[in-house]
Amino acid sequence: MQEPTTPPNESPTLAQVQEAVDRWITTTGGGYFSPLTNAVILAEETGEVARVMARKYGDQKAKPGDKSNLADELADLLWVVAAIANQTGIDLSQAFADNIAKKNTRDNQRFKSVFK
After folding, report:
1. Which pLDDT score is estimated for 1?
2. What's the pTM value of the predicted model, to 2 decimals?
3. CA angle, corner 64, sides to 61 and 67, nearest 5?
4. 78-81 contacts: CB < 8 A, separation 24 or more?
């Protein structure tokens, strides 16, 4: 897969992530799964993140030889989110900016008393 076009030691933008996922799916992967299949994959990847979290940070213990990698599981989650966004015409950069603006308005004071 071609890496997103970012300078060395810099993270790709959300647009570059979407572009890289699309490029890989259309050239190497052979095409997109249906949106419904990707929704199921999203649920499966979310479960993998939860499993790793429960074993690393929660009360469950990892099985002997378990080489779970939270970073890799989160990257898989981001991958399928980008694929779904591509399929449904969503610009994740704009959606994220809109979501932050919504949270800033809605939750301006909501959690301040909780963390004092």
Report:
1. 41
2. 0.83
3. 85
4. 78/17, 79/21, 80/38, 80/41, 80/42, 80/45, 81/42
